[in-house]
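Hi U.,

Before I forget, here's the chain from the pilot set. I'm dumping it here mostly so it's searchable later in email.
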Amino acid sequence: MEIKFTLEQARKHRGLTQEQIAKMLGMTKRTYIDYEQYKRAFRIDKAFLFAEIVNIPIDNIIFFNPKLHFKCSKRSETA
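Structure:
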C-alpha cells in the first residue's frame, strides 16, 4: 500500500513553510492556503510543480477533496 500525503503533509515533509512554497509556486500565501485547505483545486501544471518541489510522486499526493470535485462538476453541468 502506498502512502498518500495531503498537501500540508507533503509540504511539511519537505520542511517548507506555506510562504516558501507559495513563492516557489508563483502565488500568494493566501492563495496557497486555499489550496492546502482544499477550497481550490490545483491546475495540472501547478500540481506537477508542487510534486516536484516536495519530491513526492504526484500519484502519492491528495490534490483535491472529493466534495470540491463534486461542486466543480455540478457547476460545469449547469453552465
